[in-house]
Each structure stands twice: as C-alpha cells, then as structure tokens.
Amino acid sequence: xxxxxxxxxxxxxxxxxxxxxxxxxxxxxxxxxxxxxxxxxxxxxxxxxxxxxxxxxxxxxxxxxxxxxxxxxxxxxxxxxxxxxxxxxxxxxxxxxxxxxxxxxxxxxxxxxxxxxxxxxxxxxxxxxxxxxxxxxxxxxxxxxxxxxxxxxxxxxxxxxxxxxxxxxxxxxxxxxxxxxxxxxxxxxxxxxxxxxxxxxxxxxxxxxxxxxxxxxxxxxxxxxxxxxxxxxxxxxxxxxxxxxxxxxxxxxxxxxxxxxxxxxxxxxxxxxxxxxxxxxxxxxxxxxxxxxxxxxxxxxxxxxxxxxxxxxxxxxxxxxxxxxxxxxxxxxxxxxxxxxxxxxxxxxxxxxxxxxxxxxxxxx
Length: 365
Hints:
Blueprint: H1 2-7, H2 13-17, H3 39-47, E1 53-62, H4 85-96, E2 100-107, E3 111-118, E4 121-128, E5 131-136, E6 141-146, H5 164-167, H6 173-182, E7 188-192, E8 196-198, E9 201-210, E10 217-225, E11 231-238, E12 246-254, E13 272-277, E14 295-297, E15 304-307, H7 314-317, H8 320-325, E16 327-329, E17 332-336, E18 341-345, E19 350-353, H9 357-364
Parallel strand pairs: 6-13
Antiparallel strand pairs: 1-2, 1-12, 2-3, 3-4, 4-5, 5-6, 7-9, 8-9, 9-10, 10-11, 11-12, 14-15, 15-19, 16-17, 17-18, 18-19
C-alpha cells in the first residue's frame, strides 16, 4: 500500500488530489444470475482473467464536491506542448467536474485507444507500439511521444516489465480495479454484495471496505464479469455520501478484437505536431535534489504522502486556478474533495491522502 500511494502522487498539487486516473460513470444495475462464489473465489476469477482484447463505451460522472471550471473546455491543456502544470491541472479538473463519454479500444498492452467525446469535439490518446499520439480536435493540437523499449522497463522486483512505466494512469475500469485490488492488505475487509448487471453482463459485486474510519473512503465496489473475470465497473463511495463519489464502468462492452485501423493515426492537415521522447531506462537522471522522492506516513487507507518544499511548480501555485480551488488554513492552503485532501504548507511542502485536511495538518506538524 505504501508504494502504491507514492506512485499515485504526481508532481503538481491539484492533480495529486485526483490522481487515481479515474474515469467515472453512472450505470444501470440490475439483478444477475450467477453461481455462488466466495470473495476469495471472485478474487481468483479476476486474477485468472486473460482478456487481452476488448472495446466498449465508458460513461462518466462525479460527486467530488469540486466547483465547475468555466475557464476550461474541450482541449484545455490537452495535447498542449506548453507543459504547464496549471494547464494540466485544469484539464484534469474539467474531466472530473462534468459528465463525459469515452470510447475505449484495447488489443494487448501495446495497442490502446481512449477517445473522449466532447460536444462537437473529441480528445484521443492512441498507443500503437512505441508510438503514442495525443490529439485534440479543437485547435488541431497533436503531441507525438516515442516510448522507450518496454522490454527493458523493469518493475521493482526486477523480474517483469512494469506496465505503469509506459502506459501511465488507469484508463479503463479494469486498470483502475487492478490498482485497488493490488493495494488490498489487512486494513481492508473484502466481501460480496448482490450480483449486478453491467453493460448487459452478469457480474459479481466485490466490495472493499476500509477497517478504519480515519479515511474519507467509505468503500470501493468492483463489478466483476462472471464469465471473463474482467472488472466492468468501479464505484468509490465517500464516507457519509449517499451517491458514489467516483464511478467508472462500461455501458457497452465487447470482447471482440478491435480493427487494426482503430490504432492507426495520421495527424490531420494543418495540425500543430509536437514531438516528445521519453528517456530510455537507465538514462541520465535528474540532478540530485531536484525532485526528492515522496515519503509515506502510516499504512493503509489513512496513509499520508508528503513531498518536500519545491515539489509544486511555481506556475501552479501562482495561477488563478490554485487560488480558486484552495482555501487558506492554519499552516498553508488546502484543496479537498469528498475523497482526497491536499495541503500545501507555507514553506512549500505538500501533503496528500484520502483523509481530512486536519490529518494532513497534523502530519505537517
């Protein structure tokens, strides 16, 4: 759990509050007819799932308690070559403060496409082998990223490739569910709710409940397809909130292999293309002290991640968005949602966790 929290903390403070990479969706559920299983058997069903190709439609919404961001819109910060931390934060917030529909296509780990459909516009992230394209139809902005050789990217156990090192944050309910399931430890109670229907498929309702009341998270529900074992929906409930704070799931789902043409991309005529290359594994590292590693206090759901002074880009803290979304508190400024809180102290340190702001203030002291 400690390592997972560290990996979910980005460099900027506002994305840190919502960096679970969540796509959220209200989906109709109904009665399902499935063989009886224990929670352990459903966990094994997920672990044994070998679905490598699928496609579908993901619907999203949220109840995070975040204000609307009228200054952002389709394409804001998306595919931009500026690299602005405030622009990136605004783009993420725009995705999380409204309802959205996304098309998802997957054919193995090296062919993936996420297509977010805005009103009269779209945003695409397309991976085809070592090529990643980020496209925003509004303004015709395109970013092309060349990935390093994935076969040489190792996980900390040095035995297998690390998918997060090349694919980034979770983009499907299955990827998000795997993050939660990988973090299950003795601080979590695992039970089963009543079977449900998601995208017309019968699914088990696997429920993860924190054993502590010191966290803002009430529970996480994962709808597991009864046939394939692939997670079809993830709901994250905030403590004391009647509707899910985060929900991501399929309204349509197919295990048919998507056409190869789905992953082919050619920049449209007149588009501005920015080329970027990620450093190869083992390449030159950042100067010592320029990005000190975050640390974690505690374990489980109420753990607090902290980063030293200088971790927050100055263009973020000086932006109107930062002032709009944070409030002054004793010792600094705080940003909070129904699930996650972030504190930026007066001396520039950052504290984040699925806990109340008061817990972050205590950690800062």
